[in-house]
């Protein structure tokens, strides 16, 4: 897992390597993986493909861990937030409290 995180966070690594690392990290239900993915998903200058893969992995990890951090979520780009929210709402909406589900549902038109 550590090598995947290092590749993901390495802005000098090839885009395809970073994207693959983001995808592969979703198999680790681990806060360290989640935090690394969220760091990238919070960068508005990041490539859309990498943001997308990070967001999908974040959703998968949150669902697998039955865990959601509103603080991490609020730091993400709107693009990433939409992907994470939709993933969670479709598969495990109970990890979001009702207030947040309603707020984000309005924001993202759900």
Structure description:
This protein has 110 residues and is an all-alpha fold. It has one domain (2-107): Leucine-rich Repeat Variant, CATH 1.25.10. The protein contains seven helices and no strands. α1 (2-9) runs parallel beside α3 (31-41), α3 (31-41) packs antiparallel against α4 and α4 (48-65) packs parallel to α6. The longest helix has 18 residues, at 48-65. The relative contact order is 0.13.
Provide the descriptors you would attach to this structure in a database record.
110 residues, mainly alpha, Leucine-rich Repeat Variant, 0% strand
Taken from the alpha-carbon principal axes, the silhouette is globular
| Strands, total number | 0
CATH architecture: Alpha Horseshoe
Cα-atom Rg, whole angstroms? 13 Å
- In what range is the share of β-strand residues? under 5%
Helix content: over 70%
Taking pLDDT < 50 over at least 5 consecutive residues as the criterion, the unreliable ranges are none
Secondary-structure element string? HHHHHHH
CATH class: Mainly Alpha
Question: Could you give the distance between the termini?
Answer: 34 Å
User: In terms of structural class, how would the helical and strand content be classed?
Assistant: mainly alpha
Mean pLDDT: 96
Q: What about the largest sheet?
A: none
Structure annotation, total helices: 7
CATH fold title: Leucine-rich Repeat Variant
List the domain count as a whole number: 1
Sequence-ordered SSE layout with sheet pairings:
Layout: H1 2-9, H2 15-24, H3 31-41, H4 48-65, H5 70-75, H6 78-91, H7 98-107
Helix pairs in contact: 1-2, 1-3, 2-4, 3-4, 4-6
